[in-house]
């Protein structure tokens, strides 16, 4: 048996199951992100073992064990990611809405603070005309760079920061309530907004917790706790709810699934696609870090990943429609 093929196979069996370890260290939790890539590599490894056995016309007992381990690992990865493919049942139904006033739309964009290409984001805003624009990683430079849209967005809440966690919210709809919050970490803001939309109070949350990584938080606990806190708050909140932002977590992770379960919110991507918003510059490094979740009061009009604005994230645009008893 080829030693290199065996070593790589054992490695990918190990990383497939690594997130089950009782640790929130980034070296453990990072393997929740590239499940699609891991599944693809495991498929190639299985093919490699089959080719080797066929070529040498012999079946090695160790190879059988390794292929069995790879096959189980592949099935395990597919179970996590299949809800975000067209093979899965859609969690949110689609509706056609002709009147723009019936929609509630959000454009969420992690702009990447060092990026200076303000014009591309402005073009997306002018083209889509979202009710809400939330920019993440935005600082004073970005606030000035896209200031020309302020005349179209009279309701605003800004938190410019130079630490990659600034947040700017632009709204066409008046705020009934708006609050800037630092739920877990003193340098990581989030926003909570309440509006009145067609006679109903709608609550919106905009989030951007830090990821587990060697350059950010060594452990995933602050992110996990923030999502848990917001999920529990949502569970006690009545009426239509929308959550949007860069959660620095993939849609299929145990943390995000727990957030969905606690909050009772729905994911419009289920049964539709991955909508991989990160990384915008590396073709093989793709996973969904930017999210929109909503309560059962909404149906989906449209969701799409927009063209690059020079950031490491693609913007995510979502149109929802409030459902009435007549719909």
TrEMBL record:
This is Endonuclease. The keyword Membrane applies. GO terms for molecular function: endonuclease activity. The keyword Glycosyltransferase does not apply. Keywords: Endonuclease, Hydrolase, Membrane, Nuclease, Transmembrane, Transmembrane helix. Pfam families: Exo_endo_phos. InterPro entries: Endo/exonu/phosph_ase_sf (IPR036691), Endo/exonuclease/phosphatase (IPR005135). Residues 107-313 form the Endonuclease/exonuclease/phosphatase domain. Gene3D superfamilies: Endonuclease/exonuclease/phosphatase. The chain crosses the membrane at residues 36-55, 62-82.
């Amino acid at each position: 048996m080829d030693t290199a093929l065996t070593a790589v196979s054992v490695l990918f069996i190990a990383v497939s199951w690594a997130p089950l370890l009782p640790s929130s260290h980034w070296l453990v939790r990072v393997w929740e992100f590239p499940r699609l890539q891991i599944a693809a590599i495991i498929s190639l490894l299985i093919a490699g073992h089959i080719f080797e056995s066929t070529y040498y016309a012999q079946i090695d007992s160790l190879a059988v064990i390794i292929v069995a381990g790879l096959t189980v690992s592949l099935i395990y990865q597919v179970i996590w990611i299949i809800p975000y493919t067209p093979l899965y049942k859609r969690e949110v139904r689609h509706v056609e809405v002709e009147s723009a006033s019936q929609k509630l739309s959000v454009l969420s964009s992690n702009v990447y603070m060092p990026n200076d290409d303000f014009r591309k984001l402005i073009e997306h805003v002018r083209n889509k005309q979202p009710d809400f624009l939330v920019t993440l990683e935005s600082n004073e430079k970005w606030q000035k760079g896209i200031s020309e849209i302020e005349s179209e967005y009279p309701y605003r809440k800004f938190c410019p920061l130079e630490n990659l966690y600034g947040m700017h919210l632009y709204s066409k709809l008046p705020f009934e309530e708006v609050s800037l919050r630092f739920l877990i970490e003193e340098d990581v803001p989030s926003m909570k907004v309440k509006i009145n939309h067609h006679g109903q109070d709608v609550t919106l949350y905009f989030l951007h917790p830090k990821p587990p990584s060697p350059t950010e938080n060594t452990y995933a606990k602050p992110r996990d706790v923030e999502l848990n806190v917001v999920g529990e708050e949502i569970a006690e909140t009545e009426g239509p709810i929308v959550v949007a932002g860069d959660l620095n977590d993939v849609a299929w992770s145990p943390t995000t699934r727990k957030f969905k379960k606690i909050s009772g919110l729905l994911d419009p991507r289920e049964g539709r696609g991955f909508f991989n918003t990160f990384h915008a510059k590396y073709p093989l490094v793709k996973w969904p870090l930017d999210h929109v979740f909503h309560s059962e009061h909404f149906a989906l009009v449209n969701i799409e990943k927009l063209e690059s604005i020079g950031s490491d994230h693609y913007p995510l645009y979502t149109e929802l429609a409030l459902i009435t008893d007549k719909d």
